[in-house]
Amino acid sequence: MAINTNVLSSVYNFYQADLVPRSTSNKYDSHKKKDLQDIYKSIVRLSKDEPVFLMDRSREVEQYTIHMKENAMLFRNRVASMGGLEDGQMFSQKTAYSSDPEEAEIIDSATDDAAKEGEVPEEYRLKIEQLAGPQVNAGKFLPEDENNLAEGNYSFDISTMNSNYELQFSISPEDTNKGIQNRLARLINNFNLGLHAQVEKDGMGNSALVISSNAIGEKGGNGHFSISDEDTSQTGGIVDYLGIRKITEEGKNAVYTVNGEQYTAPGNDVNIGGFYNVRLKEVTEEGREVTLGIKPDFESVRDNIVSLTGSYNDFVKAAAEYVDQQPRTNLLVNYMKNTSYFYTSSLADMGVTQEEDGTLSVDEEKLGETLKDGNVEEQLGKLKSFTKFAMRKANEVQLNPMDYVDKRIVAYKNPTKPHYANPYITSAYSGMLFNGYM
Fold first, then answer.
1. CA distance 420 to 410
2. CA-based radius of gyration for the chain
3. How far apart are CA 85 and CA 35, in angstroms?
4. Is residue 89 within 8 Å of 287, Cβ to Cβ?
5. What separation, in Å, do the N-terminal and C-terminal C-alpha atoms of the chain show?
């Protein structure tokens, strides 16, 4: 009988559309070659002394085994996301700071990885001598309600670094100096020429058109822009009348010193030491300096401790759900409860305490106050030791979730003789994986 492949394909696609993985992929689920080699070696060592047993292959056992493994993996991944897989990285978050953000604000830093490697100096001393500024063409102050220009059509040219523009406008007998200045300011701003125009008053009934470049920093030649009306298609004379031809302030670079050494930059966003991207905002007062450095990030440390205890509680609760169905799971729950108390019993000063069911509770307010007070290295060290203990147990469950399944022991291996290492002994649950998705 011939098999219709189109029918089989349709059936497969129909069922495949309903298959939804129980958990999403995580970057910590991927492994390097060495990681996989270590896992394999661990399985080989474990299998040497594993007894021969018969196991119940019921649906309940399948669900229990996969659930235990997934929760162990979830706990490991959460600890890994906090840097807990490497010695010294747990609860070691640093943050960059500026002693005066109103003068120098840190907008970005590369201190996270660099601080781990010990590459960031303790601090930089910054003094801002001059901010980078734009080119400014400030016009003459003219009586607001007067106008000495004849009626007609006028135009003038603006040359920037990239383009040349001709702006045209008309003047009527009713126009005043202030009205003309306001119209020209709107015209320049609306054309997006890379310039900003505004009308300023002197408080004595006079106003002036002031034009500045959006770009800042020193610029040779004609500067960031130039204004003229000698070679224009309409009537000229408006440039000199308003006084906007002359550069009143040239573009200037930022000038600052770092640890006594002077630097210049064409903008006010500068990099300090390769670690801090800093926005210069005000000139430093005489005799003062802004300090840039790193300090412990107490908020991140607190959040990580809260996240850690929450993940640990989820791991313990997930195991406790199966105590009635799989009594051997009680061995895991009691072991976690009794051993974790050894580590956490001295952490009450930090606000971390153990409940009767073995889960941990955190007084976040007390924890935050303790971290800010400093001198918590000893307590954090104990918390790191607890994390390592919990990780070791989670790795054991992840490696061999069958260890807590009720099974019938057929034979123990003779401990006095060498045994063939069967690396597949712990993979009795592997055939259940796809079943968990169906």
1. 17
2. 36
3. 12
4. no
5. 29
Instruction: Give residue limits of the domains in the chain.
Output: 34-90+299-437, 94-132+253-296, 134-242
- 63-68 long-range Cβ contacts below 8 angstroms, 24+ apart: 63/436, 64/322, 64/325, 64/326, 64/405, 65/401, 65/402, 65/405, 65/429, 65/432, 66/401, 66/429, 66/432, 66/433, 66/436, 67/318, 67/322, 68/318, 68/319, 68/322, 68/329, 68/397, 68/401, 68/404
How far is the C-alpha of 404 from the C-alpha of 409, rounded, in Å?
13
d(CA 179, CA 145): 8
Closest CA to 129 of 261, 249, 251: 261
Report yes or no: 135 and 244 within 8 Å, Cβ to Cβ.
no
Q: Indicate the SS3 state at residue 377.
A: helix
Q: Is 218 helix (H, G, I), strand (E, B) or coil?
A: coil
Confidence (pLDDT) at 308:
86
Task: Say how many C-beta atoms besides its own lie within 10 A of residue 12's C-beta.
Answer: 10
Q: What's the pTM?
A: 0.57
DSSP code per residue over 323-334: TTT-TTHHHHHH
Candidates 2.40.160, 2.60.40, 2.40.128, 2.120.10; CATH matching 134-242: 2.60.40
Convert the pLDDT of each residue in 302-312 to its tens digit: 888 888 888 88
